[in-house]
Amino acid sequence: MHLRPLSLLLIAFCSVTGFVACSGATPDDTVLTSKTPYQPRQDVSTYTSAPDGYHIVMLQHVARHGSRGLSSADDDDLMLQLWLQAEAEDALTGLGEQLKPALDAMLAAHQRLGYGEISTLGRQEHAQMASRVLQRHSDLFSAEVDPSRSILVSHSGRSRAAQSGEAFVAQLVAEQPHLAARIQPAYASPETVYFHKAEGSEGYDDYRDNDPRLVAAMAQIEAGDKTRRVAEEALTRLFTDDFVARLQAGDYSFTAQADDEDQINDELDALFALHGLYSIAPNLTADADIDMTPFLLPEHASWLAYVDDADSFYGRGPGFVGEDITYRGADALFMEMFAQIDEFQRAPSAAPVASLRFTHAQVTMPIATWLQLADTEKSVEPSTLYAYETNPWRAAIISPMSANVQWEIYATDRDSDLLVRMLHNEAEVPFPAECSAFEPGSYFYPYSEIKRCLGEIHHLQLH
Prior knowledge:
α2 runs antiparallel to α3 (about 95-115). By secondary structure, the chain is α/β, with parallel strands linked by helices. Strands 1, 2, 3, 6, 7, 8, 9 and 10 form an eight-stranded mixed β-sheet that branches. The chain has a two-stranded antiparallel sheet with strand order 4-5. The chain is built from 16 helices and ten strands. It has helices at about 5-15, 75-90, 95-115, 120-135, 160-175, 190-195, 200-210, 210-220, 225-235, 240-250, 265-280, 300-315, 330-345, 360-370, 395-400, 445-460, and strands at about 55-65, 150-155, 185-190, 255, 265, 355-360, 405-410, 415-425, 425-430, 445. The protein has one domain (about 5-70, about 115-235, about 295-460): Phosphoglycerate mutase-like (Rossmann fold).
C-alpha cells in the first residue's frame, strides 16, 4: 500500500476539519522530526473489510503521549539568558530583537501548562483517536459485549503519558457512557511501556552513553563542520558577528535554573536550544500564539532535523548492523500482548476487550523497529554514516506525537484460529515479509502465523 505524503494528508484533513493545529505557518513534512503533531495516515472510511465471518474481539493499542510543551525548563530559559546578554551588549540584529516576544510567550505558555505536560493539542489528538476507534469498532465497544470483559489502561508512569490515557478514555466514556464500568484503574507499567528506563536497562544506557561507534557517529554529525557552519549562519541572523564569535570562543556560559547540567557554553549549545524551541512551538498552537519559523531558515531547520533523526536512528531505531540493543527491550511488551490474546483463546470472558497503553518515543520508535515497519529496516555498518540520501528513517513518519501501533484481533465461529490486522499511525500496514498473510496481499494474518514468524525473528518462546 502506498500512503499519500503526510503533507497531502494534512491539507485534506485541515480543509475538512478546520483543526486547530492547521492554522498558522508550519514547517515541512518531516522537519519537526519526533515533535511533529499527529495526524492519522489513513481515512477511516478506507479500511479493508475483515474476511467473511470474522468480527473484531480485541484491540491491542500502544500510543505515544500527545503533543506537549518542553520536557523541562531549559531551552526557553537558556535562550532568554543568551538574548538578555546580547541586549546588554547591544549585539542584537533586527530579527534578534523580534525573538524576545516569542521567548516571553513560550515561557508564559509553560507557566500555564507546566513543563513535560501534554498541551491542549495533545489532548485533542488522543480524544480524536479514541473517536475514530469507536467509529471503526462500534461492535467491539457495544453494550452487548460480555460485560465481564474489561478495558485495561497502562502508562509509563510519567505524567504526559498518563494524561494522554486520561484524554483517550474520557472520550470513550463521553461517546459510550456504558464503557465507564469496564475501564479498570490506570496503572504504571515501565517494564512494558518504558523499558529503556526500567530495571534491567543498564546495558542500553551504557550503549547510549559509551558505545564507541555511536559516540563517533554522533560527534561527527552534531559537532562536524556542517553543524558549526549552520550554527554560525543561524545565530548571526539574530546576533552580531562579534557576539557570535565570542560565543564560539567559549567566552559565555549560561546555566538553566531548573537543572545545572543544561547549559549554553558555545554556538552549538545555542543552536540546539533555538531548535528545541522551533520544534516544540507547533505543539502549543491551541495554547499560545508562538511562531518560531522566522528564526531558523528552512535549510538550517532541515539540517537540524537530520541531526535529530540521526540521534533517534542510532539510539532508538535500526542503528548498527547486527545490533538489536535499541529495540530488544520491546520483547516484554509483545510478550504481554501475546499473553492477553492467548487468554482470549483459552477463556474469552477473562480476556480484556482492549488494552490501552500510553508511552513515549523511547518506546514507539523501538517497537516500530521491532516490527520491521516501513522505513525502519535499514541499519548501517559502523563505517557508514546514517544519511538522508541513503536511509529512509524519519522520526516524523515513524514516531510523531501520539504515534501508535494497533493490533486488531478478529475471530470467527467456524475456525479456532484468530486473525490479526496491524495499523501504524492508523494506516493498515503489513507484518514482516517472513509472515504469511491470510490471503495474498491481505492485511489480515493468522494469529498462529504471527506468533511463529515474530517468535522466530526475535527468538521468543511462544507456544
